[in-house]
Amino acid sequence: MNAIPSHLDHLVLATPDLTATVAEFARRTGVAPAPGGAHVGRGTRNFLVSLGGSSYLEIIGPDPEQSEPDGPRPFDVDEVDRARTVTWAISPPDLDAAVAAARARGYDPGDVRPMSRRRPDGTLLEWRLTDGDTQHPSGLVPFLIDWGASVHPTATELPVTPLVRLSATAPDPDELRPLLAAVGAELVVSEGPVGLSFTVETPRGPVTFG
Fold first, then answer.
1. Closest by CA position to 9, among listed 60, 51, 39, 59
2. How wide is the angle at C-alpha 5 spanned by C-alphas 173 and 3, nearest 5°?
3. Cβ neighbours of residue 185 under 8 Å, at least 6 residues apart?
4. Can you say how many angstroms the Cα of residue 123 is from the centroid of all Cα atoms in its chain?
5. Tell me, what's the pLDDT at 2?
6. 26: how many CB neighbours lie within 10 A of its CB?
7. In whole numbers, what is the pLDDT of the chain averaged over residues?
8. Which residues, 6 or more positions from 62, have their beta carbon under 8 angstroms from its beta carbon?
C-alpha cells in the first residue's frame, strides 16, 4: 500500500489556538504556513502548507475576529485541547458518483453541501464536500471534496513541506478497511488508539505530526 494515498486533497490539523500552532509548525519545520482565510459564520480561520503536488495541509482553529457561531465549529475545533490531525480529504474524479458508489458498498459518507471562503487577496473559493452524522466518527475515513471551477489552494504560491507518509491507528483496523475501500481511499492502518499522523520533509529534516 502506498504511504501517500491517491487522490489525497488535504489533511486537517485542528487546534484550539491557531496562532500558537502556526508558530509551533514554523519552529519545528523552518517553514511558515501561509494565511488561508476565514470561514465566515463558522467561526474558524485557516493557514495552509503545500504537501507537494495538489495536496496540502490545513491548520484550522477559532477565528478571534468572528463572533461565536450558532453551532459547533467544524472539525471538532471546539473539542480539541491540543493541535491534532483530526481527518483528511480525498478528491475523487466525480464527487457525486463516488458518494453513490460508497453508499452502494454499504457506507454513507454524508450529504454533499457547498462551502466557501475568501482568500486574503479577496478571491472567493467555492467547493462541495461530504458532511454529516453518517461519516465515521474516528475521522480516519476521509471526507470527499470537489473544488469545481474554483482555483485549488495549491494553485497559489504556498510554502512547501513534501508529504512523506500518512498513517493511522485504530482499535479495530479491520472495521475501517471496507469503509476506506468504499470511498476508494488507501490508508495504512495499524492497531492502537484512534489517531492519524503524517510526516513531512522540511529544511530541518523529517517532522511527524499526530
1. 51
2. 75
3. 5, 7, 90, 141, 142
4. 21
5. 62
6. 15
7. 94
8. 16, 17, 18, 43, 44, 45, 73, 77, 78
Burial 110-149 (b: 16+ CB within 10 A, else e): bebeeeebebeeeeebebbbbbeeebbebbbbbbbbbbee
What pLDDT does 173 receive?
97
Inter-residue contact 90 to 180 (CB < 8 Å): no
Mean pLDDT of 45-52: 97
How many degrees, rounded to 5, is the angle at CA 132 between CA 131 and CA 133? 150
Cα separation, 86 vs 74, in Å, equals: 11
The rounded distance, in Å, linking the Cα atoms of 91 and 54 is 10
Can you read off the three cell numbers belonging to residue 78?
471546539
Top-confidence residue, 6 or 90: 90
